[in-house]
Amino acid sequence: MLRPMQSDGVTIDPAYSLAGAATGFVVGLTGVGGGALMTPLLLLVFGVSPQTAIATDLWFAAITKLVAVPMHHRAGQVDWKVVRQLWAGSLPVALLTVVLVAWGGQVGKVEWLGRAVGAVVLVAAVGLVAGPALQAWMRSRRIEAPERFKSRQPALAAVAGAVLGALVALTSVGAGALGSVMMLAIYPLRMTPQRLVATDIAHAIPLAMVAGGGYLVAGLVDGSMLASMLLGSIPAVLAGSALALRLHARWLRLALAAVLALVAAKSLVG
């Protein structure tokens, strides 16, 4: 039987470590799961309150992805131009959302957070399932009118980032699952599966930190839970990232579809 271990005021719970390892591996492999998998797991399996689940998961996702991104960067898979275009919308909107929520005294008091998480996960599930078809449709438009399409990409990326910033700040969900779909649609030729994973991970790190700032100040981050999850996720995300750089593109797409199916199931159950 797995028993929690305590050291210097931090309790390590092996159950959270196992959940962190599973999620970390999926994040490293697909770029998806930091919020879309872990938050529903905390809510539905562990019975954590929505506020604590969101707050702790934001920092879990940020730190886990921070460990993974150097490997993808060294492999030349992170598209920093796309990352910067997404940040132009996601970071200021995430910060504004956190400030408004905190200013309104709603951090830790929003009763609809659990439902909001489920709704965003469901939208992410549907979007990622439709991702290949959406990419194919947008690819045809990109080929038909290349200059016009390319001229609109920065603005579209900023708008997409703004949507992600608001969703992640409120629910912790969307940076990976919805971000992947948005990048496939906006950059249908640029985003190979490996580049999609790497770019998605890089974009999510400061976004999760900015979004998690308000919750951290409000004292809603569970340090023991976070430490337990990171103990499992850090080695697992490195293993998943290493595998992502070697898998054939078809297998990466199948992995993304499998993650999506799990997210959809969790949302429906919730």
Concise synopsis of the structure shown:
With 270 residues, the protein is an all-alpha fold.
Written description of the protein model:
This protein is mainly alpha-helical and 270 residues long. Helix content is 77%, strand content 2%. A hairpin with a 2-residue loop joins β1 and β2 (10-12). The radius of gyration is 18 Å and the shape is globular.
What's the SSE pattern?
EEHHHHHHHHHHH
Strand arrangement in the largest pleated sheet: 1-2
The major beta sheet can be summarized as:
2 strands, antiparallel
Report Rg.
18 Å
Number of domains: 1
Strand content: under 5%
Overall mean pLDDT stands at 84
Shape: globular
**Spatial gap, N to C terminus:** 27 Å
Query: What is the total tally of β strands?
Result: 2
Helix content: over 70%
Number of distinct helices? 11
Tell me the structural class. Answer: mainly alpha
List keywords for this structure.
two-stranded antiparallel sheet; 270 residues; mainly alpha
